[in-house]
Design goal:
Blueprint (H helix, E strand, L loop, with lengths): L3 H15 L10 H14 L8 H31 L6 H27 L22 E4 L2 E4 L13 H21 L7 H24 L3 H4 L16 H19 L20 H18 L11 H28 L4 H16 L10 H20 L8 H19 L2 H7 L8 H4 L3 H31 L6 H6 L1 H6 L5 H4 L24 H6 L1
């Protein structure tokens, strides 16, 4: 069940990191400038830094911290949708994947995702092991910017360390999306193997194409006249990439035991704690106030407040759209659909949040609320997705990406310097931007799916994807971790000595009495 080879490989990887040469450490250009800035003040010289550097850096770090807190939201949501015997494993999974993504993104992910040059297939102008960061300020294509080795973010004067942290937590969110669909039957080691590949190759390359300055975002690639793809904060670059990885996993993993009857019809496997699910949704909603507004990477222009406003309106409309759609079908107010309506709408508004006017936000959100409900009903007939991520992050992510081609405002397309300056169809009355969006998400989907499917196929042929039927029946808490998430509910009474609230008289078995004997006595 547990692979010694996997443990040895992890140990070897950590050893390699420890013996990396000095070039594996950051150039610390921002730190050097801060020290020089302080020294200059003491010597009566002009400061090297504009005060806006501090303000923008604080905002980016605050926004990134909100996005990091979304990991708690994913944990609560997945625990709520799981059966109680699989609650504890989700905590270990969240912590492990976040940690692996941090190391992988530091090593090569950030460099591949946001390194220059603009229009490239993969970033390669610096950033491997956060080294060779280049100058703090320079000129790129005639435009003066900050950290020009990472040109797509050069308009922001926030420090490069804050930009790294912000982009890393996006990678961690995308990875978290993959695993909600695989609950209750996947081996823990699969998380580890795929997380390494995802954080170093799949996500960095895919996100580079879409919003890291790659060829899809730049446009006019391979001699075509295709407009640049617009994805302000990651409907495709984060959410669709995560959902696509999940889709590839599910095709090879299969459903939970008992999900489909002999007639092939799906059976409900209810989660054990809907209040935890609701708390998870609210935490994710809060995290989106860092996710979308923080993607401006600065506070100086004040745009983040409007982006937050747009994000919140869409989320609210998504809840209403979802509960209305579900009520038409079931004549009940479905708690799960209400939560997924919020998530789907927030996913959908992620791409257009920096491109559309306020009036369009409720439309984007409400349509996403309808899509997620109909999507969950459709997917459940064929694929076991316990949390509805294929619909909430995949289908809604596609809708959000396409909505840029419909609603993008010309003034914001020009301000962001991406895509058709005439805006989406509502303004331009042509399909230039909509075509770019459709082509863009299709290419990103195809790349991520092929890479993910190949990775999971190799894992299945070597390490294996699923736990055994006996381990699945017992629950992953005990079979993978040797402990229960809710011990009072699952541990036999004779083993509960010392737990408060348990009658002492119920546990008088002698030390030589076995658990089975104590239970049957």
């Amino acid at each position: 069940m547990r692979s010694p080879t996997l443990v040895r490989a992890l140990g070897l990887g950590l050893l390699v990191l420890l013996v990396l040469p000095a070039t594996g450490f950051a150039d610390a250009t921002d730190l050097n400038n801060s020290i020089a800035n302080a020294s200059g003040k003491q010597a009566g010289k002009l400061p090297l830094y504009n005060p806006s550097v501090g303000f923008d850096t604080i905002w980016v770090i605050l926004a990134a911290s909100l996005v990091m807190f979304m990991q708690a939201g994913f944990a609560f949501l997945e625990i709520g949708f799981s059966r109680a015997k699989n609650a504890g494993t989700i905590v270990a999974k969240i912590l492990t994947n976040y940690s692996i993504a941090a190391i992988g993104y530091w090593a090569v992910g950030f460099a591949f995702a946001f390194g220059g040059p603009i229009g490239s297939f993969i970033g390669h102008s610096g950033g491997i092991f956060f080294s060779h960061l280049g100058v703090n300020q320079g000129t790129y294509h005639g435009v003066t910017g900050f950290h020009p080795n990472f040109p797509i973010m050069a308009a922001s004067d926030a420090t490069i360390e804050s930009k790294w942290f912000f982009q890393f937590v996006f990678c961690a969110v995308s990875l978290a999306i993959v695993w909600g669909t695989t609950l209750e039957r996947i081996k823990f080691g699969v998380y580890i193997i795929y997380a390494i590949v995802f954080s170093t190759l799949i996500y960095p390359i895919g996100s580079h194409w879409v919003f890291g300055g790659g060829f899809l975002q730049h446009g006019a690639w391979l001699g075509t006249k295709i407009a640049g793809m617009q994805d302000f904060a990651g409907s495709t670059a984060v959410h669709l990439i995560g959902a696509t990885g999940a889709f590839a996993a599910l095709l090879l993993l299969g459903p939970r035991r008992g999900k489909y009857g002999k007639d092939g019809k799906p059976r409900a496997i209810p989660g054990h704690n809907m209040p935890l699910f609701g708390l998870g949704v609210l935490i994710l909603w809060l995290g989106w106030f860092g996710f979308n507004p923080g993607s401006a990477l600065q506070a100086a222009d004040g745009r983040f407040a409007e982006i937050l406003f747009i994000t919140n309106l869409a989320g609210a409309a998504g809840v209403l759209g979802a509960i209305t759609t579900a009520y038409i079908s079931t004549k009940t107010i479905d708690i799960g659909m209400a939560g997924n309506g919020a998530i789907a709408a927030l996913v959908a508004i992620t791409a257009p949040s920096g491109y559309i006017e306020i009036w369009a936000a409720p439309i984007v959100g409400a349509v996403a609320g309808v899509i997620v409900v109909r999507g969950v009903y459709f997917v459940d007939k064929y694929i076991d997705d316990p949390v509805g991520a294929l619909s909430a992050h995949g289908m809604a992510g596609i809708w959000g990406t396409l909505s840029c081609g419909i609603f993008t405002s010309p003034r914001l397309a020009q301000y962001n310097t991406t895509g058709d300056p005439n805006g989406g169809f509502v303004y331009s009355h042509h399909l230039t931007q909509l075509a770019a969006q459709a082509i863009g998400f299709s290419i990103a989907f195809l790349f991520v799916f092929l890479m993910s499917f190949a990775t999971f196929w190799v894992i299945k042929q070597t390490y294996g994807l699923r736990v055994s039927p006996e381990e699945e029946d017992a629950g992953l808490d005990i079979s993978e971790h040797g402990m229960y998430g809710y011990p009072e509910q699952f541990i036999p009474p004779a083993e509960l000595i010392g737990y408060s609230g348990t009658p002492v008289t119920a546990m008088t078995a002698s030390p030589s009495t076995t658990t089975k004997e104590a239970l049957t006595s």
